[in-house]
Design a protein that fits this description.
- With 295 residues, this protein is mainly alpha-helical.
- Among the domains are: 90-142, no CATH class; 148-226, DNA polymerase, domain 1 (Orthogonal Bundle), CATH 1.10.150.320; 235-294, Orthogonal Bundle (DNA polymerase, domain 1).
- Helices cover 47% and strands 3% of the residues.
Length: 295
């Protein structure tokens, strides 16, 4: 039976254990050391400067934001605007033509309403806040305005005057209106356009709302016209869309949209005066538009 100290190790055994420990350390750390040296050499060849923790965090945040919003770069690009190819009168453009120049549908609708009252110059056009500055700069060199010629029509003597029978402005033609002394082709055309836009005249005083119409011109022609409402074109407040309602000269977009929202909440309207529940439809607006509405 062994009687010696179990922890008593000879020098030869001690050297063997030391060699074993050193060999193990070498085996474990040599690959890591080689990889570290290789990485430093590669960085030196490419002239890569190690980044700080803060820079690394910013890079990671940037990559995350790009993954979170992949369309960010696309949306930041400016929308390419169509350049006009010929001169045009801004007063005669359609909604689609305004939209083709870069306006949204809502912006184009508002600009159309302003154009009905008349735009005489680029200065007036630029003041319209619904036309972005970039759109204005894109089209300003192609605009033309013929409204100065309209004043000459008053001085033109007509070839003949209408008969004693008054013209019904809801059942007349542009040619017949041109026969009235002091009216001329421009105002005759504008009266017919406004009559179509309204859906018919309710009273002849509405001619004063026609684009470029003045009290002086109206005073000259009012004795030759009369208004028999007849069949007005009406808009159903229970079925019309906000766009259809807004197309009427007496309603703006907010008022039209308000009517549609109220209809959605109610299910349907049971009487036309119910639209007055909207805080943005005042009594004056309601009385003007009421003849053109139906359930």
């Amino acid at each position: 039976m062994f009687q010696g100290n179990p922890f008593d190790v000879s020098r030869r055994h001690q050297r063997g254990i030391l060699v074993l420990i050193l060999t193990s350390i070498l085996i474990i750390f040599t690959p890591r050391l080689l990889m570290s040296l290789h990485s430093e050499e590669f960085s030196t060849e490419l002239h890569i400067t190690p980044i700080s923790k803060n820079q690394h965090w910013r890079n990671e945040t940037h990559r995350w934001n790009r993954r979170k919003n992949p369309y960010r770069k696309w949306s930041s690009k400016q929308k390419k605007l169509r350049k006009p190819t010929e001169k045009f009168d801004p007063n005669l453009l359609s909604k689609e033509e305004w939209m083709s120049f870069g306006l949204s549908e809502k912006q184009a609708s508002v600009v159309l309403k302003i154009a009905k009252r008349g735009i005489d110059s680029n200065e007036e056009l630029q003041k319209i806040k619904f036309i972005p500055e970039k759109v204005f700069e894109n089209i300003k060199d192609f605009t033309k305005y013929d409204v100065k010629e309209h004043s000459k029509e008053l001085s033109k003597k007509p070839e003949f005057e209408p008969s004693n029978q008054k013209l019904n402005i809801n059942q007349t033609s542009e040619q017949e209106l041109m026969e009235i002394k002091g009216l001329g082709p421009f105002y005759a055309r504008q009266i017919m356009k406004y009559q179509q836009s309204l859906g018919g005249f309710v009273r002849k005083e509405q001619i004063l709302e026609v684009w470029k119409m003045t009290p002086e011109i109206y005073a000259q022609i009012q004795a030759f016209i009369q208004c028999e409402p007849g069949n007005l074109r009406k808009i159903s407040i229970n079925t019309a869309s906000a766009e259809e309602l807004q197309a009427h000269p007496y309603l703006n977009w907010n008022q039209a949209n308000s009517i549609v929202k109220m209809r959605t909440q109610k299910g349907r309207f049971h009487s036309i005066p119910e639209i007055k529940e909207s805080v943005i439809i005042d009594e004056e607006t309601f009385e003007k538009v009421r003849p053109y509405l139906s359930l």
